[in-house]
Amino acid sequence: MFKARYLVLVGIILTAAALRLVPHPPNFTPIAALALFGGAHFSHRWAALGVPLAALLIGDLIIGFHVTMPVVYVSFALVVGLGRWLRPGQGILPVTGAVLAASILFFILTNFGVWVLLSSYPKTLAGLGACYTAALPFFGNTLMGTAFYTAALFGGFALAGRGFPVLVAGELAPTKYS
Question: What is the pTM of this model?
Answer without folding.
Answer: 0.84
